[in-house]
Structures are given as C-alpha cells and as structure tokens.
C-alpha cells in the first residue's frame, strides 16, 4: 500500500528521470485523453524542454493513444495531427475501433 509520502516520492523520482532524460533527448508531458465529437478522442504531448523534437512528441502522443485504446481491447485509428511550435506541442485526434475492423469495411 502506498502512502501519500511514497506517492510523492515516486512522482519526484519520475520527474527527476524525465528531467535527466530531457538534458539528453528531451521528454514529453502528455495530457489526459479528452473526448470530442463523433467518438473522437484527443491527446496532446508537450515538450518539457526545447531539445524535444516534433517526431518524439508525435511518438509520445501515439503511444498514449495506442495504450488508451488497447486497454479497451481496441486499436487506435489515428485521424489528425496538429503540430505547434509555441509551445512545442503535438495534438493527436483518434478513434478506438474493434480489433480487425478496417476503415474500408466501415465505409462499405
């Protein structure tokens, strides 16, 4: 069982690891998944340091989308990517679809 002190210690440890990584390659802070219109979801990844690249932010956003849909036993159908430079941020819009369902099958 975690106490509030041990949870705070874990958060500090994670932040320290992220900052140490940022010095070398950067790290991302991802938002909570937000629900949009028509079964769409959105996640944003923001660079913690200027050494974070847009491709790395994109990868972090995609990873969170895949994890979110995977927990529902579904796959992520990535829809739209918006890149911003001030702050360095990527917004990824996606849907969760049943495994094995293709976009073409849904259109037919």
UniProtKB/TrEMBL annotation:
Keywords: Membrane, Signal, Transmembrane, Transmembrane helix
Segments traversing the membrane: 40-61
Signal peptide feature range: 1-25
Protein name (database record): Lipoprotein
């Amino acid at each position: 069982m975690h106490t509030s002190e041990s949870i705070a210690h874990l958060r500090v440890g994670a932040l320290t690891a992220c900052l140490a990584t940022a010095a070398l390659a950067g790290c991302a802070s991802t938002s909570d998944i937000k629900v949009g219109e028509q079964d769409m979801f959105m996640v944003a990844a923001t660079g913690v340091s200027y050494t974070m690249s847009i491709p790395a932010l994109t990868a972090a956003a995609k990873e969170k989308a895949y994890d979110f849909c995977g927990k529902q036993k579904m796959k992520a159908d990535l829809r739209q990517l918006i890149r911003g430079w001030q702050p360095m941020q990527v917004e990824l819009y996606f849907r969760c679809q049943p495994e094995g369902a293709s976009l073409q099958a849904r259109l037919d």
